Amino acid sequence: MTSGGQSVDEGEVEAIRRWAEEYARAHGFTLNTNKKQLGTVLRGLARNRAKLGEQYCPCRLRTGDKEKDRIIICPCVYHKDEVTQSGHCHCNLFFEQPKRE
After folding, report:
1. What are the backbone angles phi and psi of residue 64, rounded to the nearest 5°?
2. Residues of the chain whose pLDDT is less than 70?
């Protein structure tokens, strides 16, 4: 599959999906239920990992300085506060768990 004109390894996308599901479960989050949006974010993470060597958040701008950009490697340093404040992270990957009645 291609995204943004670049080929994305679907096996890598699936590996990132499994990692994200496990991470979400372990931290009390859920993944985006909109499959199209979720797929876009996962492909962006896979593309960044393949091209840049790290799964940088596809919704954040890198500076090009690896040390400074460490904070935007998914899960970025901002995601927990964003989920708490907005119900989801900026990339729309992680969402708060629905409230149980």
Report:
1. 95, -10
2. 1-6, 101
